[in-house]
Design brief:
This protein has a 4-stranded antiparallel beta sheet, with helices on one face. The chain is an alpha+beta fold and 92 residues long. The protein contains 2 helices and 4 strands, in the order ββαβαβ. The protein starts with 5 loop residues before the first strand and ends in a 15-residue tail after the last strand. A hairpin with a 7-residue loop joins strand 1 and strand 2. Helices cover 18% and strands 25% of the residues. The protein has one domain: Roll (NE1680-like fold).
């Protein structure tokens, strides 16, 4: 593992679709506030990966995730805000 790389364990919420919790250590839930864990539900491990500045994440900025993991031990990824398309009826 390169010095700038960071191992990461990603858990999904069984309660909130597309909500993920990134941890700096496997099953290290003691760094996550109790209120957050109670809202999150029982975490389900999705993947273990190694983060680096070069790695792209689908919905998160990898630098932000890495900073949060180093400073707090966790990072919470919220579900995307859905913008429904407005239907205006048939064109004239």
């Amino acid at each position: 593992m390169a010095a700038d790389n960071l191992p990461c364990w990603v858990y999904r919420s069984p309660r909130k679709q597309e909500m993920y919790l990134y941890l700096a250590a496997e099953d290290a839930f003691e760094c996550v506030p109790d209120a957050l864990l109670s809202q999150f539900g029982e975490p389900v491990l999705v993947i273990e990966l190694e983060l680096s500045i070069e790695r792209k994440l689908a919905r998160e900025n990898v630098e932000t995730v890495m900073r949060n993991l180093r400073e707090r031990g966790f990072h919470l990824q919220m579900p995307p805000k859905l913008q429904p398309d407005l239907y205006e009826g048939n064109p004239i």
